[in-house]
Amino acid sequence: MENSKGKRAMATTHATELFPTVAVTMCTGETQANLASLITHNKETPNQCNFPQHGNIMDNSIKKSVTKSFNIPKEDCIMQLPWVVNNVKPSREDESQADIQENIQQMSLAIVKCTEEAKDKLAQVITHNVETLSQRKSHVLGYPVNQEFDYDALAPFLHFHLNNAGDPFTGSSYTLNSSKFEVCVLDWFANLWEIEKGEYWGYVTTGGTEGNLHGILTGREQLPDGILYTSQDSHYSIFKVARMCRMKCVTVDSLVSGEIDYVNLKASLLANKDKPAIINLNIGTTMKGAIDDIDRVLQTLEETGFSCDRFYIHCDGALFGVMLPFLKQAPKITFKKPIGSITISGHKFLGCPIPCGVVITRVGYINTLSRNVEYIASRDATITGSRSGHTPIFLWYALKERGLRGLQNEVQKCMMSARYLQRRLHDAGISAMVNKFSNIVVFEKPLDEDFVHKWSLACKENIAHVVVMQHVTIEMLDSFVNEFIQKRRIWFKNPLCLSEDIGAENCACIAHN
Amino acid sequence: MENSKGKRAMATTHATELFPTVAVTMCTGETQANLASLITHNKETPNQCNFPQHGNIMDNSIKKSVTKSFNIPKEDCIMQLPWVVNNVKPSREDESQADIQENIQQMSLAIVKCTEEAKDKLAQVITHNVETLSQRKSHVLGYPVNQEFDYDALAPFLHFHLNNAGDPFTGSSYTLNSSKFEVCVLDWFANLWEIEKGEYWGYVTTGGTEGNLHGILTGREQLPDGILYTSQDSHYSIFKVARMCRMKCVTVDSLVSGEIDYVNLKASLLANKDKPAIINLNIGTTMKGAIDDIDRVLQTLEETGFSCDRFYIHCDGALFGVMLPFLKQAPKITFKKPIGSITISGHKFLGCPIPCGVVITRVGYINTLSRNVEYIASRDATITGSRSGHTPIFLWYALKERGLRGLQNEVQKCMMSARYLQRRLHDAGISAMVNKFSNIVVFEKPLDEDFVHKWSLACKENIAHVVVMQHVTIEMLDSFVNEFIQKRRIWFKNPLCLSEDIGAENCACIAHN
């Protein structure tokens, strides 16, 4: 094979060769109409500099040194390098009331102008959207997202691009990072799930999906021919991960509660005894908040002859992973049991403007995954590589600002309010279920699309749910139930039997009530 | 196989059963020392409520209704539900000057307290870190990250958890989203790379790695037994993706410029003629900013007998994907050529506090990837599922605020300043190279670790680089070069020959100068 290295001459070029002589040729990417109008404009004034000279972003000394360096006549440089159009005032026409109205009412977000948009117009669009979001926020019931947070104190960090590229424990050569904050957050979770510093490895992810991907991938690297087992009530990301990572996936039945069906799991394991098992456990499930019982799964593995070196357990603790430690008698999520990894979502219970999460695993597994990356002077065992430096600071603040007692109070509030909602629905003759350590209230699916949309309800087949998070007040729940009862009269004929979905004891149908 | 559905009785519980009677039992996750002290404290006051009654987050009416609902005596409820400790004033001891100093100087970030941290202490830590970052920011030269942005106008959006779960074009049932902004941003990029609305699909990613993962995965789903080809100068994420997705990966040699070696590519393709080809092209490479020539690769595919249905091309345009359209004579990145996907990083040229990116592909490929997800009332063809709603707004603002002409000015500034830096290094007798359409200046690796760290330089083997982004001023470059020259006298003996790394014409060694 011929080595062509070095054969090709590399031309280093003067900057002047690179730029088009008129601005218009660079306007690829503009809408056709806008582009056409710009071309016409430039054709009409081919030799004029169309840009105002004030408000340059480069001061004169810099321009002078650049100009000097390339021996370009000063005038030519200005002609060719129309540095800035920042201070161009929009024309009266642009500012007309009609245009502003259009901007606001029709949410004119399209990016079609060749020149920049005036700041006050952008501000109007922003204000309008923030108002809309505020209105919607008071009705968000269906998703496990805590909307009660205030990170105003962290706003100054938005002036930096922070990047925790690579391994949080080794740092990287990119100095604008928050690795120290990240390690504090990881230590907190390692402590919560009872694994010693030095024994664990982890990082702040972009959310539950990345955590699941990392956990299951870690399992796959340990047991390359392992089969992934997960219940049919698992989050959709688990099935996506299986496909992405080219793993055989066995979907195990679920119980009515949403919990994995241990009998079916046992049968599935026995049917594939020759292959190691990678098991995803839900702590708890997305729709019903059911918690797969780690101890029972471990017992099943023992009964079916899977020794410790032939299984890997990943725990998807998206919402409950942070909550359970604050609940008496709740199943213990701990690395003292032979599990491989746990992940949670940071924007769920803790609350964060941006999706994020945490994954913790045993440090021994990580060497198989990591690669030294000289470019960032770090090693990389993460999925995303370049990672947010802001989300670890948000999580750090969330934990530090509240303390354990603050978190405990919030867990209690959510649990109490969830049971309040269930009681109110039962009292109105509506089938409803709450699993034991859950703040997710599952009930008869409303048959009114507008109602479902208004309250951001998550639905699946015959059921819908409300996840009672910190921002959900009793007033919100009352308002929701009252409207539900009122609207239900329209579509309601006979109560659908939901015993298959949420159990006979929670069903309000004629047969079970 | 026995179906155990419904066999297990589900107990719905009263909230009172769930909570420990004393707060301490919930303090799992606390540091051992703190936990021990808390246990001691609680043992001493087992029947007292340790929490102040002021500053409750639940107002009395809510507490009353919850209490009433569960028939819990009001007093008991307060005992068991110490709602809040928000207004606890830190003791004098806590506030001592020594402690504050420790907080600031030793960056006491650890989250070890059971109760929440006082706001003023947090503010001190934040201020200290923001100052440190500001100092560092003026020296960030080695990474392709634009630090010149101001998104203060978008701060109000930080009061919401925005989530663009699922497909940006179908929306989802989670109403706090920015899908409209996202679609505008995608339309802009589709236009830039010349693919019609309706013909393309895409989304805003968490960064370049996710974009590469998505693009290559899209290729794999089209050509399941395809082999991935990528040059040795490719970003480390490409090799990671290959491994994650269980794809055979052929590493192709690079030319001295960093560009893929077309002769070696041809030989590799011929050696694997029986398998389809999935080709990653760098637009441009991470270290040297070299651009793989799409046309030459297409010609190579034709010569080796790969018809259009037997190859898929993904373009990793992390930095240059946005810049090239603004440069005269630059290779055209367009969907008019038979490519499958393009990705860019949003935090690189455009600038964004949080890592993000854009991936655009042909809509026809997406049906193979997507799954309907009833839970979010959307379909999912993304990697991360739950996705940031903020980053699309940042990108929208970045594009709208600048317009095409603003972007054009910035590209010009970066290109000019990069050539200024190369000239200054050459003048000082230091080997240095800039590829034709690149703002990355590659030079002799400094042998002083502190110097490398101070300027956040990225190094690889014998070379280092500076990526001249928008925030890099001529003053910064002068300051960098002057310090480089000064420090270099310490380690400098004879100039290392770098002809193998950056070409003989850029080498300042005795043989080539």
Characteristics:
homodimer, 513 residues, alpha/beta, four-stranded antiparallel sheet, 18 helices, 12% strand, globular, disordered N terminus
Describe this structure in words.
The structure is a homodimer of 513-residue chains. Chain A has a seven-stranded mixed beta sheet, sandwiched between helices. Mean pLDDT of chain A is 83; it is low at 1-13, 20-98 and 100-106. Chain A is globular and about 65 Å long. In chain A, 39% of the residues lie in helices and 12% in strands. Chain A has 18 helices and 13 strands. With 513 residues, chain A is of the alpha/beta class. At the A-B interface, helix 1, helix 3, helix 7, helix 8 and helix 9 of A face helix 1, helix 3, helix 7, helix 8 and helix 9 of B.
Lay out the secondary structure.
Two copies of one chain form a homodimer.
Chain A lengths: L14 H4 L13 H13 L15 H11 L3 H7 L11 H4 L1 H9 L13 H19 L41 H14 L7 E6 L2 H15 L4 E5 L4 H9 L4 E4 L9 H10 L5 E6 L11 H10 L7 E6 L3 H4 L17 E5 L11 E6 L3 H4 L1 E3 L4 E3 L9 H38 L4 E3 L5 E5 L4 H6 L3 E3 L2 E5 L6 H18 L7 H4 L11
Parallel strand pairs in A: 2-3, 2-4, 4-5, 5-6
Antiparallel strand pairs in A: 1-7, 6-7, 8-9, 10-11, 11-13, 12-13
